[in-house]
Design a protein that fits this description.
With about 70 residues, the protein is mainly alpha-helical. It is about 60% helix and about 0% strand. The protein has 2 helices and no strands. α1 packs antiparallel against α2. The longest helix is centred in the middle third of the chain and has 25 residues. About 5% of the residues are buried.
Length: about 70
């Protein structure tokens, strides 16, 4: 289910596209802290989804394909 990881990367890219013009206007220390935390979270999201795409980690349980085996009586 790699299309979920691609979708999350596209969404993260869109959010960065929307936020990028606002980031340089940060003046107060609180704004710097907010945007620093936001960019840190963005890097974590992108890194985790790239790891899923490159099959370095297993996808979340919700996205794993389940194979049902017939129970023999």
């Amino acid at each position: 289910m790699q299309h979920y990881a691609i979708l999350r990367l596209l969404m993260a890219g869109f959010f960065l596209y929307v936020a990028w013009p606002v980031i340089p206007s940060a003046v107060t220390p609180e704004a710097f802290l907010f945007w620093g935390a936001w960019l840190g979270f963005f890097i974590l999201v992108v890194g985790a989804n790239f790891a899923t795409l490159l099959q370095m980690t297993e996808p979340p349980v919700m996205e794993q394909e389940s194979t049902r085996r017939r129970q023999q009586a």
